[in-house]
Amino acid sequence: RRTLNLSSTPMNALLADSFTVMQPIADVRSVEIEFDAPPETVLVDRDRILQVLTNLIQNAIKFSDPGSAIHLLGEKDSSHMTVTIRDEGHGIPASHIDAIFEPFHQVDISDSGPSSGSGLGLAICKEIVEAHGGTIWAERGIEQGAVFRFRIPIRDPHPFNAAATITSPNAGVS
Prior knowledge:
Blueprint: E1 7-10, H1 11-28, E2 32-36, E3 41-44, H2 46-62, E4 69-76, E5 80-87, H3 121-131, E6 135-140, E7 146-153
Parallel strand pairs: 2-4
Antiparallel strand pairs: 1-3, 4-5, 5-7, 6-7
Helix pairs in contact: 1-2, 2-3
């Protein structure tokens, strides 16, 4: 368990930073990364959310075919930011959807080559997102691929910014 170092961070900047970090890996695999997000500021631990994004993008790259694309999208509603990472790869077998965020769980896709990693990446992503008061989940793509989403609350960086009302303990006493 780590302490979160919260700061106001524009979501589009986080997606742009994750794109910059992961693009060289995507280039090696001939996979395109596209992203779009509003400039809405969220109160997050920037490094931890960047860790979540890069892990999810790296998994998407690993299971994507050359010439395919990965789509990153940030969407804001009145109180939350939802980030979607959608790939055009092999998808997640239905039998694994509920277990992929468990520690050491790995999905073996025989034609994607040998499995690599410890099986901890998605479990760590879940821990980080939940520490932010959010949720993370996976879905099978409509036609193919996998869809990962996480949803975190948009918090006021100054939650106690209303003027304080001070009442004297002797008020109204003569």
